[in-house]
Amino acid sequence: MNASTVNESDARETEAKAEVSIEQKETEGLSQGQIVRRRFFRHRAALISIIVLAFIVILAFTSVGVNLWGLRIPGWWQYSWDEIPPKVNNGVPTMSLWPLQFGDHPFGQDEVGRDIFAVVMRGAQQSIMVMVIAGVVATIFGVVIGAVAGFYGKVTDSVLMRFTDIIITIPLIVIGSVLGNTFGSLGAAVLGVVIGLFAWTTMARLVRGEFLTLREREFVDAARVSGARDRRIIFRHILPNSVGVIVVNATLLMAGAILLESSLSFLGFGVQSPDTSLGKIISENQAAFSTRPWIFWWPGIFIIAIALCVNFIGDGLRDAFDPRQKKMPSERAMARAGRAKGPMAPVIDTTPSTDAPSVTVGMQTAYTGDVVNFNDPRPEEPGDVQHKPLDPER
């Protein structure tokens, strides 16, 4: 092995040690929750998505108020989604960027005269409600069924997984259309529960896979030996170790739920009149696409924004909970870590110079530059008890 290869391997080893020391210093003295929170806040896209999603939720629920099961709380916006004010500017949006002004109808008005801003805010409320309720219901069902199937296995696993396979074979859009047409008139909350009852299959399969792996670990055997019951082992020992997979998949379920609700409402099987949702707004005004296109811009923008924000948040949670995700330290941090370990030992180049005096003995070349006691590489001769310095004439 020549000196350059040795130097490169030493450099790589030193760099790896510096990287490990940096990661250990960053997580030293922190709990698992603090480590996850710190990793999540480093994900810029997820952090921006949380801010944007929080802004949309606050804007939607405070602007036009809340009307839930007969309880109505007014908002700060001057118009309601079911109010028909007189037309202003022929229904064209009054909002302009320069000079910055909003006017009475910043999103414009439809053909009847309803304020599009109020209608879109009400639609965003309903879509967000369906998204959250469907995600929570699907997560609960998926976790319970997947945990029971993965922990007990055998007959229980076979029965539950075959039932899951049956639900998977039925297209979700077909189930949603049939049930949405039946229960859509009861409100967004009931529609969210109905969607959640049939959207848990992916969650169940993922949780089952995690439980099949974790139930063979040493801490589960220790809990069994200590006399813990199955329910305690499932919910106190195994389930906390699966929280990463559960949280990430729950965000994906929510993103899929809002898209499914928008599709069902667009087809007429989702939220029913007199209420509205983002998909229903597009469906009701599809005939005016060529004359009043702004009616489609804002519901579509809000659907895309909410779905993207939820997906980016799920991406950040996946990186935060996955211990294999590591942040590569910068060159400055690597240099600081290297200096903290002290100066590196000098590397001595042991490669012999080509002009050094040498003697060829047999098939080997011996360099005799500064060698004082160089032993003859040939086997010792009979009667020669001790090696003597190399004799060129020998």
Automatic annotation (TrEMBL):
BP GO terms, sorted: peptide transport; protein transport; transmembrane transport
Bias type Basic and acidic residues, positions: 9-25, 377-394
Gene3D superfamilies linked to this entry: MetI-like
Region (Disordered): 1-25, 335-394
Record-annotated ABC transmembrane type-1 domain positions: 124-314
Primary location: membrane
Keywords (A to Z) from UniProt: Cell inner membrane, Cell membrane, Membrane, Peptide transport, Protein transport, Transmembrane, Transmembrane helix, Transport
Database matches in InterPro entries: BP-dependent_transpt_permease, MetI-like, MetI-like_sf, OppC_N
Family matches, as PANTHER family: OLIGOPEPTIDE TRANSPORT SYSTEM PERMEASE PROTEIN APPC, OLIGOPEPTIDE TRANSPORT SYSTEM PERMEASE PROTEIN OPPC
UniProt similarity note: Belongs to the binding-protein-dependent transport system permease family. OppBC subfamily.
Designated name of the protein: Oligopeptide transport system permease protein OppC
